[in-house]
């Protein structure tokens, strides 16, 4: 049997949702650059789930359904107050809350197409409520209810801070959500598909995907980028700190990609957003540090930044707590996970690859008292 480490280059399924061809990312054939400039996140959700853009009335209906389903069962809010460990990571809280939600949905295990679509709406709608309720409760604040007059991006920022977000913040956050929504067969999406291909339920698939996104080689990298920036602390320190990391063969978080070779097409949008937002805040240090790190890592290692690199300074400028960066990624990517889960159910076959055994040859059982 031949193996490929980390399944590199292995084509594991067909999919009509998104594609990466020659370093170009498209959702259902629409170039990501086009969507980033023009689409609302709600339009992208519809696109991923229906494989076409919505009409105005379809978009209005989706927004209405998301608004109607945003409230959390009170038990989910209460459970955020009961964690035994003080500094629970928000990704662990999100993973647990999504799993818990399944216990409060009577049709969690109903497997027909319409019930699964209803679960997709419920999960997408509740993600902002989960993340913001957790974030506020741990700060000793009450959760803020969503407003029906705000779209998805604006509502999240409003529910997090309790303040009306500025138009420039809404525009940037909407764009970040659009850019993170789907990405072919990345590790968390593959995890979701493997899970539901056993005909397990939607809540299990999304819970599993959150677990996979949490790791620093995947979605968890955006929080690590911010850690790198705060540890380095100033533009003057960048060169020596990054050279030291490279000499020590440490990975520089937010660089490199399994699929892209010339660069991640999402990074340029986030870079520009980072420039604008940090300038607007009068705090361009993190943008300047980031561009300097990019220059160094690109010239020394020929590794371009990925989606996680500039999203760190963007989210920092939006005054989002650093450990909420990966939950914010999940807030967007859940739309892609749900699209892939629905696609998997529609043409399902168990996903079960093989392993090339490299352990010892034939052995005979030795009773425990004779083992040395
Ligand atoms: C949303 C996302 O998930 S985007 C990715 C987010 N993750 C990160 O930013 C973490 C940092 N990046 C990485 O760890 C990797 O580039 C990955 C995981 C994204 C892709 O990894 P792979 O395709 O498996 O490449 P792999 O880890 O095998 O690296 C290949 C070579 O490039 C080097 N390399 C890859 N990424 C980096 C990096 N960020 N910094 C320094 N060196 C790197 C490796 O050390 C390795 O070098 P070697 O051949 O001399 O040993
Ligand atoms: O595709 C990947 O391997 C990781 C990635 O960029 C994403 O999930 O957005």
UniProtKB/TrEMBL annotation:
InterPro entries xref list: 2-MeCitrate/Citrate_synth_II, Citrate_synth-like_lrg_a-sub, Citrate_synth-like_sm_a-sub, Citrate_synthase, Citrate_synthase_AS, Citrate_synthase_bac-typ, Citrate_synthase_sf
Xref: Gene3D superfamilies: Citrate Synthase, domain 1, Cytochrome P450-Terp, domain 2
Alphabetical keyword list: Acyltransferase, Transferase, Tricarboxylic acid cycle
Keyword Chaperone assigned: no
GO molecular-function term, one example from the UniProt record: citrate synthase activity
Catalytic activity as recorded in UniProt: oxaloacetate + acetyl-CoA + H2O = citrate + CoA + H(+)
Pathway(s): Carbohydrate metabolism; tricarboxylic acid cycle
Pfam families, alphabetized: Citrate_synt
Family: Belongs to the citrate synthase family.
Annotated protein name in UniProt: Citrate synthase
Biological source species: Rossellomorea pakistanensis
Top-level taxonomy: Bacteria, Bacillati, Bacillota, Bacilli, Bacillales
């Amino acid at each position: 049997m031949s193996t490929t480490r980390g399944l590199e280059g292995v084509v594991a399924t067909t999919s009509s949702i998104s594609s990466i061809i020659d370093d170009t990312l498209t959702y259902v054939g629409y170039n990501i650059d086009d969507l980033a400039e023009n689409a609302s996140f709600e339009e992208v959700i519809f696109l991923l789930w229906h494989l076409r853009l919505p009409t105005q009335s379809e978009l209005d209906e989706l927004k209405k359904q998301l608004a109607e389903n945003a409230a959390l069962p009170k038990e989910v809010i209460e459970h955020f107050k009961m964690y035994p460990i003080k500094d629970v990571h928000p990704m662990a809280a999100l993973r647990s809350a999504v799993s818990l939600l399944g216990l409060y949905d009577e049709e969690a295990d109903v497997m027909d197409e319409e019930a699964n679509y209803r679960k997709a709406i419920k999960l997408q709608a509740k993600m902002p409520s989960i993340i913001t309720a957790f974030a506020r409760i741990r700060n000793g604040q009450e959760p803020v209810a969503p407003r029906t007059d705000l779209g998805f991006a604006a509502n999240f920022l409003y529910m997090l801070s309790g303040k009306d977000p500025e138009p420039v913040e809404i525009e940037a956050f909407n764009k970040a959500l659009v850019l993170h929504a789907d990405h072919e067969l990345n590790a968390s999406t593959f995890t979701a598909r493997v899970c539901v291909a056993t005909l397990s339920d939607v809540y299990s698939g999304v819970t599993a995907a959150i677990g996979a996104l949490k790791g620093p080689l995947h979605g968890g990298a955006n929080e690590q980028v911010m850690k790198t920036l705060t540890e380095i602390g100033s533009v003057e320190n960048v060169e020596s700190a990054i050279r030291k990391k490279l000499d020590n063969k440490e990975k520089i978080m937010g660089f490199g990609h399994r699929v892209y070779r010339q660069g991640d097409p999402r990074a340029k949008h986030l870079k520009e957003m980072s420039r604008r937002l940090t300038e607007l805040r009068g705090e361009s240090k993190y943008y300047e540090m980031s561009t300097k790190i990019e220059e160094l890592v690109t010239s020394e290692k020929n590794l371009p930044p990925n989606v996680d690199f500039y999203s760190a300074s963007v989210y920092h400028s939006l005054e989002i707590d650093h450990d909420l960066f990966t939950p914010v990624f999940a807030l967007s990517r859940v739309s892609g996970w749900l699209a892939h889960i629905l696609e998997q159910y529609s043409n399902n076959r168990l996903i079960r690859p093989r392993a090339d055994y490299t352990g010892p040859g034939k052995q005979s059982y030795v009773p425990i008292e004779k083992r040395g």
